[in-house]
Design brief:
The chain is α+β, with helices and mostly antiparallel strands. It has seven helices and 22 strands. Helix 3 runs antiparallel to helix 4. It is globular, with a radius of gyration of 32 Å.
Length: 529
């Protein structure tokens, strides 16, 4: 039985004792107990409840009037008539619990036919009869609650877990050895997150945001191994010394947060977002300390700094199977005079952008040089004389490998159409911020006299795959208005980032080796087919 299943049974026992289970829920509970063979666990809890109820009666007998002799105002809020009333209530509780235990055993006699020893208390691992109540005078004030850290530590000692899956968002999980339900306790083992965001809260105090695709192995409450992918660690003062192991280095956090990417066979990176991180590497005689803004890239043989920090960090794209297109007439940026590219603020003309397997979009007020806009060109010459009745633009989301999804919220995008046809013949391999059609140099917007908005879509935080589309009469109208057989779309992300190292969103271009390129799907008037 896993820790998660054990907790499920204990919660249902508590509801059973409190009379909060309906008949249907009780039947389902009994079926679940049978499925997990959890009869002994249930009997332990029922016996424990009866024992504690009996001890409560003894405590009241010993405490007696002393517990009511206190004259503080907070103890006068509720006055009980006399001690005999409590005796009756406690005795009743004990009788009810013992009856429940007996009933349960009568319903399931076969499970305990060979049981010789009485069930033991699960926490103390001692027989109930060996636990003798001791007279204690209740304190005037409630005892201070244990710190959360101490409580979590005690719990983890009992079930061998070292962390908790605190939060999940848009998650798709691969094969691993640990539970993936939000809130699940985690023992040492492996998690494989194919897509989405997941937050792990370690019992040592550190938290780790995983950004799919990522694979991680939890080793202890203060250490984990990042096998591949990206993660952001948040380490408060009490968790100083939290460690992340990658293929070629050991990272030790001295507060407060840092991002790390690990590549299977390629270079890894660590970026200090705030505070101080130590890096131990085979090329260094001693641990090297990094501070806010420092970035190093490393592999098995060498470790190098990126001068002046980083604009973004890199992980590299994945692949995806190209989908079928159905009955629509399809035009992609790879057909005819089609083209796709993206521009980056302050970036000099870079022919490689036009050959990139990705087109990118990002809005950043924190750093001008990180802003990006995507440009798509479609050749409509072969459908120029046909009336379009339905149209859809489809984009396949791909991981850019730049920045961290934890540092940008759910993002919203607008697709614009270029209405100034004299600008349609833009140079794919020489496109840059200063010569891009309708670009407004000092903003993330576009010239409203040369463009028209055609549709919007969103990408939830942590999502790095799937398809986004825009469609509708405005798109069809824009395409039907074309006179030169060439149309241009521009993709703008409206959502700013929370940190200058926030994620760059990307879509497959016509150069992507396996993913679907930007695609127009068109339907025409029947008379013009």
């Amino acid at each position: 039985m896993t820790a998660e299943e054990r907790n499920e049974i204990l919660e249902q026992v508590e509801r059973y004792l409190e009379g909060r289970l309906t008949e249907a829920e009780r039947d389902a509970f009994e079926a679940r107990v049978a499925e997990l063979n959890a009869y002994e666990l249930v009997a332990d809890q029922l016996h424990l409840h009866g024992t504690l109820s009996a001890q409560a009666g003894d405590w009241l007998n010993e405490a007696g009037d002393d517990s009511r002799g206190n004259t503080s105002s907070e103890n006068k809020v509720v006055a009980f008539p006399n001690r005999q009333w409590w005796h009756v209530a406690v005795g009743y509780a004990a009788v009810v619990t013992v009856t429940a235990v007996s009933t349960w055993w009568l319903l399931h006699p076969a499970k305990y036919a060979n049981t010789v020893e009485a069930p033991r208390l699960p926490i103390e691992e001692a027989k109930p009869e060996t636990v003798a109540p001791s007279p204690v005078t209740p304190p005037v004030q409630d005892a201070p609650a244990k710190p959360v850290e101490e409580t979590v530590a005690e719990a983890s000692k009992k079930d061998a877990t070292v962390a908790r899956l605190a939060d999940t968002r848009a998650c798709k999980w691969g094969s691993g050895t640990l539970p993936t339900a939000q809130g699940a306790r985690l023992a040492p083992g492996r998690l494989s997150l194919l897509e989405g965001l997941a937050a792990i809260q370690f019992d040592g105090g550190a938290s780790l945001n995983l950004e799919g695709p990522v694979e991680i192995e939890i080793e202890s409450a203060k250490r984990c191994r990042l096998i591949q992918g990206a993660a952001v660690a948040w380490v408060p003062e009490r968790a100083r010394g939290f460690q992340i192991v990658t293929n070629d280095a050991l990272l030790t956090d001295y507060g407060t947060r840092f991002g790390v990417t690990a590549s299977d066979g390629g270079p890894s990176e660590v970026l200090v977002l705030e505070g101080e991180v130590g890096v131990a590497h085979s090329s260094l005689p001693d641990e090297r300390r990094l501070f806010t803004g420092d970035l190093v890239r490393y592999d098995r043989d060498r470790l190098e700094s990126v001068v002046g920090g980083a604009d973004e960090v890199g992980r590299g794209p994945e692949t995806h199977v190209k989908p079928e297109d159905g009955s629509w007439t399809v035009i992609t940026t790879a057909m005819g005079r089609g083209r796709d590219n993206y521009i980056r603020k302050t970036e000099k003309p870079n022919p490689e952008f036009g050959r990139s397997p990705l087109v990118m979009s990002k809005w950043s007020t924190a750093r001008d040089g990180n802003r990006r806009k995507a440009y798509l060109g479609f050749d409509l010459s072969r459908v120029r004389d046909r009336e379009i009745t339905e149209a859809e633009l489809a984009l396949e989301i791909r991981p850019s490998g730049l920045g961290y999804a934890s540092l940008v919220e759910d993002s919203y995008f607008v697709v614009y159409g270029l209405t100034d046809e004299t600008l349609d013949d833009w140079p794919e391999h020489q496109l840059h911020w200063d010569n891009a059609p309708a670009n407004v140099e000092e903003a993330m917007g576009l010239n409203p006299e040369q463009t028209v908005p055609l549709g919007r879509f969103d990408i939830a935080q942590g999502v790095c795959s799937g398809t986004r589309t825009i469609k509708g009469p405005e798109l069809a109208k824009f395409l039907n208005a074309d006179t030169n057989g060439m149309v241009t779309f521009i993709i703008i992300r409206e959502t700013d980032e929370m940190d200058s190292m926030g994620l760059v969103h990307a879509f497959a271009s016509k150069e992507h080796p396996t993913a679907m390129p930007p695609t127009l799907r068109l339907k025409f008037d029947k008379e013009n087919r």
